[in-house]
From TrEMBL:
InterPro entries: ClpP/crotonase-like_dom_sf, S41A_metabolite_peptidase. This is Tail specific protease domain-containing protein. It comes from the Eukaryota. Residues 1-19 form the signal peptide. SUPFAM superfamilies: ClpP/crotonase. Keywords: Signal.
Length: 707
């Protein structure tokens, strides 16, 4: 994929005078070829004022992102993977001439992806996920009995493709060569020997270089493959980066395969097909495409919370960022809770997990939304499948976590598997300020709550069940706080209001205190930087009374995922692992690559519109350091608070190691089947007389085994 891009850009067709409008050609069509999508998307010429506007907004918002200077060169073990000087790249981009607006966006987007930070992302809804390219053959990485690993077409590939793409499946059937025509189903499970004539891991690793989102290389390799996630309403299937691409840049892929029960090696060429994204607004030609998709909308920029006219307008709209958060859509009411969530250009999966893969045990009645409880057939292992740390109703979510775990115990469960596969935390929002009620607990607090109720009251769970944090204390941030200190936020609606936060003794700041001072002055990668003093936790007392004792013994808890556990999910997993000794497992993954059980810790995330709201509400929009409004349909996410570590409390947790205790290989029988994976995990990780030591050694590979 990576290798194709320069070629594609070179081949870009620009509609000259008199040429047919390439956007009119695709208007109203659900499925098109990637080439048709590109002809439209690359046809918009660069407009210097638009380019300059985006660069200015980004450049002036980055001083609110905690990690800019760290990311120039991260400390080990991330030094090989995070070495992006985003300020230098912005300067480069400013000086670069682009043939089209989309070329400019791709360069900017890719530069941000190189941060490998799911919190700090630039998106332009004029291009990202407008036409998503699919293949009917998602891939998985399977381990054979002798320990050898191979890429395979997912065994469920045809079931998925025929259910999700009923209106395209014939196209793909007809595109297969010779005797394989119409035999797409027979590709399911096939061993993939080569992709585009090369070892499949060449492409896996190329994708890992550009996909971004997580610091660790193994975690980014894993994004190539398909997986599952628990959504608010149902179980979803995640296609993976191979079979689902947010930009229509590839036309086809060549697979060298060996089908199940066949000794013949075959070659197939499978075309990508691009489907119109669910957020696309109707257009008829280039002009209406630009007007409907590419300009700012309500929610793109911030507003003055003390100007009732703007407040009203904001309350009528769903902010664009809501579509991009890797979590279920949350209510306007609950959006004000501080969240730590990842942003992605890929919308949350709406592909259902097929019947044959759904968990077998019936979920307990205490299950709610993204939190589902199961008792395994051994009657002693309970499962909490947790797809996110946010759900529509915050109170109901907290209650469900407590009730579900207590119900598992009352049914006899003594062991617990917590499955956080593809749990991106929550995200980066609280756009709408609810003027009528006070700031309450946030989704970060769900992570604290779950830690506290599982473990019980201890010095690691009370009054702080998460991580200490700091925020960046740039000049403009300091002026915002000064303005609030002088009475600039009488209703305590702003995020820079000291009364929202607590000091390192976990006690609230007074509204007069300048909580960013005295600033902690650091030199990071040769750059002077300034942060607030250490901040404590504002989650406790919780809205609900936690039980007096921990619900499960930490030795009997295991947290499993595909490594793609970020943000609030990291806050939870790290405190459970490093403070309480809870075991962690990554399922799947290349056996020679160390697997991290989580990544992209952050502390609290936010995005441009929120920062802009702080600036506008304190009448600082005219300040020379204040970013202008976005003119485009853009979203910029940042990390606003950065968490301190546990092993080294003086440095950010973001850059500390999170090695999984176990790496469980996936096989044809269990891949993408949650309940089979839970049973397997329970058997391997919890010692019992049924599994002998010898069997255990043969059955799993600790992550270091292959090194
Ligand atoms: C970003 O802002 C800094 C500080 O104001 C300035 O020195 C730099 O030139 C700006 N970069 C770009 C690309 O505009
Ligand atoms: C391991 O098993 C696979 C299939 O079962 C086989 O193709 C491969 O050659 C074996 N590898 C080794 C090193 O024995
Ligand atoms: C492969 O062969 C085995 C044994 O004959 C059979 O049970 C299985 O159904 C076959 N699988 C496929 C996909 O043809
Ligand atoms: C978009 O077009 C479709 C099909 O023409 C139509 O059903 C739908 O109502 C239109 N949506 C909007 C928002 O105009
Ligand atoms: C769960 O709810 C269903 C449907 O409301 C009910 O039939 C069942 O008895 C409930 N189970 C338990 C254990 O309460
Ligand atoms: C688990 O409990 C069910 C219902 O009480 C029982 O039928 C089953 O035999 C038990 N399984 C085991 C492994 O004890
Ligand atoms: C949220 O859940 C709580 C507890 O179940 C309930 O009392 C409350 O009415 C719910 N709120 C909304 C807005 O549905
Ligand atoms: C908690 O208490 C233990 C034992 O008293 C001590 O070793 C540990 O450092 C304390 N941890 C924290 C986070 O205060
Ligand atoms: C936190 O605030 C309390 C109350 O204002 C104060 O007594 C305490 O010294 C502060 N702690 C720190 C570490 O600043
Ligand atoms: C950090 O630098 C600022 C200004 O450069 C200064 O006012 C502040 O006191 C310094 N902080 C500390 C802890 O020395
Ligand atoms: C910015 O400055 C202009 C001109 O001085 C003034 O009219 C405007 O009200 C100011 N805007 C804000 C948001 O303070
Ligand atoms: C969109 O950007 C323009 C500046 O080009 C600004 O005047 C307008 O207020 C913005 N609209 C919204 C909804 O943010």
């Amino acid at each position: 994929m990576l290798g194709l891009i320069p070629v594609l850009i070179a081949l870009t067709i620009h509609s000259g005078v008199g040429a047919a409008d390439p956007c009119a050609a695709i208007a109203g069509k659900k499925w098109i070829s990637p080439q048709e999508a590109r002809s439209c998307m690359f046809s918009f010429p660069i407009e210097e004022d638009i380019k300059d506007n985006i660069i200015q907004v980004v450049n002036k918002t980055l001083p609110f992102h905690t990690s800019v200077n760290y990311q120039i060169l991260a400390p080990p073990p991330y030094d090989k993977y995070v070495h992006e000087d985003i300020a230098a790249d912005l300067a480069r981009i400013k000086e670069t001439s682009y043939t089209s607006d989309f070329d400019f966006h791709i360069d900017l987007y890719r530069s941000f992806r190189r941060l490998n930070d799911g919190h700090c992302v630039i998106l332009n809804l004029c291009y990202d996920s407008l036409y998503i390219s699919y293949l009917p053959t998602p891939l998985v990485l399977l381990t054979a009995e002798n320990g050898s690993q191979n890429v395979h077409v997912a065994p469920e590939a045809f079931t998925i493709a025929s259910a999700e793409f009923p209106d395209q499946i014939d196209f793909w059937q007809d595109s297969l060569p010779g005797d394989l025509k119409g035999q797409l189903a027979s590709l399911s499970g096939a061993k993939v020997l080569e992709i585009n004539g090369q070892d499949p891991f060449i492409l896996v690793n190329e994708n890992a270089e550009i996909t971004g989102g997580y610091q660790a290389f193994g975690t980014r390799q894993n994004s190539f493959f398909s997986s599952y996630s628990r959504g608010a309403k149902s179980w979803s299937y995640v296609m993976g980066n191979f079979a689902q691409q947010i930009h229509p840049l590839d036309d086809f892929v060549e697979l060298t395969i060996q089908r199940i029960n066949s000794s013949v090696v075959e070659q197939v060429t499978i075309p990508y097909r691009s489907r119109i994204g669910s957020t696309v607004r109707n257009f008829t030609d280039s002009a209406s495409y630009r007007a409907n998709m590419c300009t700012n909308v309500t929610g793109t920029n911030g507003f003055n919370v003390y100007d009732l006219g703007s407040v009203h307008a904001q309350q009528q709209a769903v902010p664009p960022v809501a579509y991009l958060e890797q979590q279920p859509m949350i209510s306007r009411q609950d959006r004000k809770h501080p969240i730590n969530v990842m942003l992605d250009a890929t919308p949350l999966s709406d592909v259902d997990l097929p019947e044959e893969l759904l968990p077998l045990p019936v979920a307990l009645n205490e299950s709610y939304s993204v939190a589902q409880f199961y008792l395994l057939n051994d009657n002693i292992t309970g499962v909490l499948a947790l797809g996110s740390f946010s759900a529509a109703n915050f109170t109901a979510f907290m209650g469900s976590l407590l009730d579900g775990l207590q119900e598992l115990k009352s049914l006899g469960a003594t062991h617990l598997v917590v499955d956080v596969t593809n749990n991106g935390g929550g995200k980066c929002a609280f756009i709408s300020k609810d003027l009528s009620s006070k700031f309450r607990l946030g989704y970060i607090c769900i992570a604290h709550w779950l830690h506290r109720i599982l473990i019980g009251p201890k010095n690691t769970t009370e009054p702080q069940a998460g991580l200490y944090t700091c925020t960046r204390a740039g000049s403009l941030a300091q002026e915002i706080v000064e303005s609030i200190n002088k009475g600039g936020d009488p209703e305590a609606l702003l995020s820079y209001n000291p009364s929202q936060w607590r000091n390192s003794s976990n006690l609230p700041f007074s509204v007069q205190s300048h909580w960013l001072r005295p600033t902690v002055n650091l030199t990071i990668n040769g750059h002077d930087d300034a942060f607030s003093p250490r901040l404590g936790a504002e989650c406790q007392p919780f809205e609900m009374t936690p039980p007096e004792e921990g619900l499960f013994n930490p030795e009997n808890i295991v947290i499993i995922s595909n490594g793609r556990c970020g943000s609030s999910c990291s806050l939870f997993s790290i405190t459970m692992s490093k403070h309480e000794g809870v075991k962690t497992v990554v399922v799947g993954g290349h056996k020679d690559t160390p697997q991290q059980y989580c990544g992209v810790v952050g502390g609290q995330s936010t995005h441009f519109a929120e920062i802009d709201t702080e600036i506008k509400s304190t009448y600082l929009k005219n300040h020379t350091l204040a970013p202008p409004d976005f003119k485009t349909n853009s979203v910029l996410g940042i990390t606003w608070r950065l968490a301190f570590g546990i092993d080294n409390p003086e440095e950010p947790e973001e850059w500390q190691d999170h090695p999984a205790d176990f790496n469980l290989p996936l096989t044809m029988d269990i891949v993408n089947k949650p309940s089979a994976i839970w049973e397997y995990t329970a058997n391997m990780v919890f010692p019992s007389e049924v599994v002998t030591d010898e069997a255990r050694t043969q059955a799993y590979l600790p992550y270091w085994a292959g090194v």
